[in-house]
Write a structure and sequence with these properties.
single chain, alpha+beta, Nuclear Transport Factor 2, Chain: A, six-stranded mixed β-sheet, 6 strands, 40% strand, globular
Length: 137
């Protein structure tokens, strides 16, 4: 029964994302959540995740579309596949200049549950070169 419950947690996480309910997203994470950033490093902790979300909200406006969630037989690991539709609002360090460019990218996320069923790890993957091409970099 744990698999359907974890799938519901992952779905709630992305629903909160689409509603810009960052505190709702954070409430679904363990305190020591590991966040693997695409093309970047690993950040640990809900506080670091909160800072990451604030930065993203400053530079981007995004929505998850066509979400598919798959959970393994143990109910402790999930994969999410979706399309991110976004708008590049403000310059992000090391990336092309922002001018309201719109983009659409396929994304996959590997997600792990903690002992209490909250999300303990989120690892996001997308094609950064494709994003740069779309925003004109």
């Amino acid at each position: 029964m744990r698999g359907p419950m974890f799938a519901a947690t992952v779905a709630a996480y992305y629903d909160a994302f689409n509603r810009s309910d960052r505190e709702g997203m954070l409430a679904l994470l363990t305190e020591d959540v590991a966040h693997d950033i695409n093309q970047g490093g690993r950040e640990v902790g809900r506080a670091a995740f909160r800072e990451f979300l604030a930065h993203m909200d400053h530079c981007y406006r995004e929505q998850v579309r066509d979400l598919v969630i798959m959970v393994d037989a143990t109910g402790t690991r999930a994969a999410a596949e979706f399309t991110i539709e976004g708008e590049y609002l403000r310059d992000d360090a090391g990336l092309p200049a922002a001018a309201g460019q719109r983009y659409r990218l396929p994304v996959v996320a590997a997600i792990a549950a903690g002992p209490d069923g909250a999300i303990a790890r989120v690892s996001n993957y997308y094609n950064l070169a494709d994003w740069i091409r779309q925003v004109g970099g």
